[in-house]
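Researcher: Following up on the earlier apo prediction. This time include the ligand. It's zinc ion, with the SMILES given after the sequence.
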Amino acid sequence: MRRGGKPVAKADLPRKICAGCGRPFAWRRKWARDWEAVRYCSDACREGRYGRAKNPPGPGLN
Ligand SMILES: [Zn+2]
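Model: Understood. Below is the ligand-bound prediction.
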């Protein structure tokens, strides 16, 4: 048996589902002021290029 165990709580951070990639992501400190407005887990998702390989935009269309 365990004693003195409150299940503590990194896991206690708020979470949201990313509107870009659809994955859950957890609160981050950089969003502390903005959490209500955060919809994406990353800049890539915000810009709509989630799930892509890192292809630099530019020439190379063939
Ligand atoms: Zn995402």
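Model: The radius of gyration is 18 Å.
Researcher: Noted. I'll compare it with the apo version next.
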